[in-house]
Write a structure and sequence with these properties.
Rossmann fold, seven-stranded mixed sheet, 238 residues, 8 helices, alpha/beta, 44% helix
């Protein structure tokens, strides 16, 4: 026996709204995390077969990208997160955790350091349990809205990162995008606001940001400056 037309229509609307929200979020992340996933692919591909990798911050797209590389390259991945709800292998604070004699070939810490109360202590800890020649793969925000409040403590400049990573032998820092693209990221991040107007207009906001993306790309290349970016991607070798 079929469902009444009104029930069927209601369920259809719920499914459609769910699909719309999912699409909006996916498209917004394509802009707000611009430059992050190609950077991850580039540097994970350089790790040796069977590398021991620590992922600080479990779950999300970063873990998905890492899992794909791990499947192809037999990485031994361990996840560490302070939040048990993310399902990490180890529950703990990267600034305080003691791995004893255990050492890793690489540590992946993407979009995490701004949420750590003691970033210098966290970097010192990572340096300690990386093997000699091991690699820290790091991404941090600069011009980026508050998120995961209230556990959002810091923003990092290129020069602040150089200072934090001064004990590493080789440090490469790149801006994730241009100043114009960073402005567009601020626009698209409005959809994360709990303001009911922002939620209602989320699809329109994403469409406008996507329409502005080619313009932002061109303007950012025409007017070159390093005074602003949404964040930095960094490779540091112990």
């Amino acid at each position: 026996m079929g469902l009444p037309a009104t029930v069927s229509a209601t369920r259809g609307r719920k499914i459609d709204l769910g699909m719309i929200r999912s699409t909006v979020v996916r498209l917004s992340k394509a802009l707000s995390r611009q430059g992050l996933y190609p950077f991850l692919d580039e540097h994970l591909a350089r790790l040796p077969e069977g590398a021991k990798v620590l992922n600080v911050g479990a779950g999300g797209e970063v873990a998905t990208v890492l899992a794909a590389h791990a499947g192809r390259r037999s990485f031994q991945v361990t996840s560490l997160d302070i939040d048990p709800g993310r399902g990490p292998d180890i529950i703990g604070d990267v600034a305080e955790f003691d791995f004893g004699d255990r050492r890793f070939d690489a540590v992946v810490m993407c979009e995490v350091l701004e949420h750590v109360r003691e970033p210098r202590q966290a970097i010192e800890t990572v340096h300690r349990f990386l093997r000699s020649g091991g690699v820290l793969i790091l991404s941090t925000p600069f011009i980026f809205p508050l998120h995961d409040q209230p556990a959002d403590y810091y923003r990092f400049t290129r020069y602040g990162l150089e200072w934090l990573l001064r004990d590493f032998s080789e440090v490469t820092i790149r801006a994730r995008n241009s100043w114009a693209e960073a402005v567009n990221v601020l626009l698209v991040r409005l959809i994360k606001e709990k303001n009911p107007v922002c939620r209602l207009l989320a699809p329109l906001i994403v469409v406008l940001a996507l329409m502005a993306a080619p313009f932002s790309l061109i303007v950012g290349r025409l007017i070159r400056t390093d005074f602003m970016t949404s964040g930095y991607v960094t490779r540091a070798v112990k």
